[in-house]
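I am writing to request your help with a piece of structural work I have in hand. The matter concerns a single protein, recorded as an amino acid sequence and a row of backbone structure tokens. Could you please explain, in whatever detail you think fit, how the structure tokens follow from the sequence? Thank you for your consideration; the sequence and its tokens are set out here:
>
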Amino acid sequence: MTTEVIDTVVGTVRTGLVGGGFMGRVHAAAARRAGARLASVASSSRDRAEAVARELGVARVEDDAAGVIAASDVDVVHICTPNATHAVLAEAALAAGKHVVCEKPLATSVSDARALARHAAATGSVAAVPFVYRYHPMVREARARVASGRIGTLLSLDGSYLQDWMLRQNDDDWRADAAAGGPSRAFADIGSHLCDLVEFVTGERIARVAARTRRMFDERAGRSVTNEDVAALLVETESGALGTLLVSQMAPGRKNALVLELHGTRRSLRFDQERPEELWVGARKGSRLVLRDPAADHPDSARLQTVPAGHPMGYQDAFDGFVADVYAAIGGARPDGMPTFADGLRAAVLTAAVLESAQTRTWIEVPA
């Protein structure tokens, strides 16, 4: 049974939304900005879905995810549900001939992620995972400078992703339940973004890792917790560059502090997600701060800049750029740097390596 809420055709791509929480709203806003028609939504309950539909202007409410996936007027399904449901929902959407945008982690196991990546490749559907920090223009500027050789040979790197929303024992979320969130929390949730940024900007794979994890509370809000709050990594890239990465959801005062710093033989680069208009360029003499400017930046950066210099862009703008690329790909384009299910598989492989290293307390070779 369905309920019509509003039926305004906005564009040619027809979007179905599964999940109506914070991320569902971010996806919906980006889809609308890309010119899509929000055709259908399902959430944790019908009442919840109806409230989301009214708030976001979605045309129709479905009883469950299966209804969204089966709908004949849905071209692309956005999956914004708890982690443990991603694999089965993405598989069903691909089997139904839909394009898919699936929140990360793509799956909570490497085997499931690999099966999804293979299925997506076999069907030819556009299948994307929102590693959206790639879509900050100054990340693209950093990537272009590395690729051009302007920083020289990569020597080392330093990165962190710090939050504080799980600082106290009474802080709780479905992600803390391994049955819903998976065996890794901090690393799979935010460390995967950091490692994706490392590999995307440097153009190199992380070849091996030595990791330690820490869980401060074995119980939160009356339930058992088995996944980690903090992960610290030593990494080595394909070329031999060494790096340190710190991931924590218990860093007081840090809300979404994603930072990447690269050190080359000529220059260093530093990007701070909470200061997305800037790229720090370090030199032996004359370090400087480069500000976003479409008139001066690399074309791959400039194409993502929707407002002139001096008009700040942020997280939703990055997400908008990602969804715009996905929808362009549905139309036959081949956008550079769009993260796919192959990238979701890569994150699952890295997560498994981090957990194995933390358990065995040894260096782990990361499969290419």
Notes: The radius of gyration is 20 Å.
